[in-house]
Amino acid sequence: MRILLIEDDQSLADGIATALRHTGYAVDRAETGAAGISLAQAARPDVIILDLGLPDMDGVDVLKQLRRKSISSSVLILTARDDLPSKIGGLDAGADDYLTKPFAVDELLARLRALERRAGLGLSAEIQVGDVSINLASHEVTRAGESIKLSRREFTLLRALAERPGHILSREQLEDKLYSWGEEVASNTVDVHIHNLRKKIYPEFIQTIRGVGYKLGPAK
Amino acid sequence: MRILLIEDDQSLADGIATALRHTGYAVDRAETGAAGISLAQAARPDVIILDLGLPDMDGVDVLKQLRRKSISSSVLILTARDDLPSKIGGLDAGADDYLTKPFAVDELLARLRALERRAGLGLSAEIQVGDVSINLASHEVTRAGESIKLSRREFTLLRALAERPGHILSREQLEDKLYSWGEEVASNTVDVHIHNLRKKIYPEFIQTIRGVGYKLGPAK
DNA sequence: CGCCACCTTAAGTTTGCCTTAATCTGGCCC
DNA sequence: GGGCCAGATTAAGGCAAACTTAAGGTGGCG
User: Domain range holding A68?
Assistant: First the structure.
């Protein structure tokens, strides 16, 4: 998925861009509204992350111009001001979501995934962890180019873990991903699926934290 | 982007025009074929939305005249469900896509975006997946030059899948493509059509993702 | 009016997955 | 070192999803 980041604060932009690229997104950057608009036309990103506090023009105006030029990318607003009026104005002008600074990068990633899902775009919605890549749209999983065939539950589990690499998820949390409310299950299903995943990918790909849960991480 | 809407039904035209303007398109309107043709020459729209059921002249003739005057706008046909087979047959003339009434506005917008994208890339109204090519306007499907005859439902299904190769569509989503509001169906129709498509093309062309849906995969 | 194509149902069959549960392994604390 | 506990492993049965096939209905077209 292609993302255009319009943000004038250098260090913040650096941080976000790095995180996004690390997650597997293609990132274009602009530091002014004007540059952002022309880049949006040229690059046709799936999502535009737009800071409202730009030096050259008001963020909401940038958004309006984007829409006027019929650029239909999803737009996620960043704003330092925590004031409600500006948020409302942004959403009215055609933003799809907003986030107030400061924010956690995880939060940003979560919202991007939501946008992706909502827009139904997800053309190349892909998560990369180590040499394993997980395509959300096609349910394709590959390791170093080798295709790996996963069942539904396995895929769900893997995705849950991959959405936050390094983060530990408890058995309970994982079960919540697998089962809809009210059809809880009482056995070691998660264990079994984890085991099967390890067999299909490679054992060290999923790490056990005794008494806590599982996490994804490069073998270390 | 500039759009010319040729539609005689006032209230429908109002609805469409409003939605389009709200999305950021510039909209011109005509209520007769004759008016549409002259407006097309004057305004040079990027896309023409053309209702086939006009009072003064046959929609297909409008289209032919437009082409004869070498107006190269993309043309999206609107047609009542009933006269689909008879009229679509004569469309080789050069429509780029069509939509049967009644339709959801979202659907219209999606198709406009598709046209836009296609026009921007200078592509024809044809989708290629593997050695299978699907002509949106003429409803022709060929595999390696061999023509394949599909029924209406089969074509609709195939197109839905082909618009995003690799992307998984659920049964539910596919049903939405087949049935307009309020004529939902409760059976395994989709399964059966998929089965028939596989028989006519080749089985592996459509892949099943158990518990999720179907997707198109390249010939291999 | 009657044929033909297509669509929808529905029933029967197949297939692959999920769960269960029983057993095994290895760390950890006494 | 021995026992305990968390997690790993394995295999089998059951079940639901998907496939297949065929019959009945509908509407278009000759």
Answer: 2-119
Q: Look at residue A182 in the predicted model and tell me its pLDDT.
A: 61
* B64 shares a domain with B18: yes
Residue A179 CA to nucleotide D18 C1', Å?
21
Burial label, B24 (beta-carbon count in 10 A; 0-12, 13-18, 19+): middle
Q: Which residues touch strand C (CB under 7 A)?
A: A 149, 151-154, 178-179, 185-189, 192-193, 210; B 149, 151-154, 178-179, 185-189, 191-193, 210-211
pLDDT, tens only, B62-72: 887 887 777 77
Write the pLDDT tens digit of every residue in A65-92: 786 665 667 888 887 655 445 554 555 5
Q: How far is residue B5's CA from residue B40's CA, in Å, rounded to a whole number?
A: 10
A192-216 per-position pLDDT tens digit? 999 999 999 888 889 888 888 898 8
Q: Nearest to residue A33, comparing CAs of A18, A48, A12? A: A48
User: pLDDT, tens digit, for every residue of A170-198?
Assistant: 888 888 778 766 666 777 889 999 999 99
Strand D atom within 7 Å of A152 CB: no
Closest to B131 measured CA to CA, from B211, B29, B219, B35: B219
Determine whether the distance from the CB of B86 to the nearest atom of strand D is below 7 Å. Answer: yes
Query: Based on the domain organization, do B160 and B101 belong to the same domain?
Result: no
Closest residue in A to B210 (Cα) is A152
Q: Using the beta-carbon criterion (under 8 Å), do B25 and A70 form an inter-chain contact?
A: yes
Query: Which of B23, B166, B168 is closest, CB to CB, to A70?
Result: B23
The residue written with tokens 């180019």 in the block is A145
Round and report the angstrom distance from CA (A190) to C1' (C29). Answer: 27
Put simply, whether A70 touches B (Cβ < 8 Å) is yes
User: Three-class SS of residue A189?
Assistant: helix
Statement to judge: residues B7 and B96 lie in one domain: yes
Q: How far apart are CA B142 and CA B150, in angstroms?
A: 10
CATH of the domain at A104: 3.40.50.2300
> pTM for the full model?
0.58
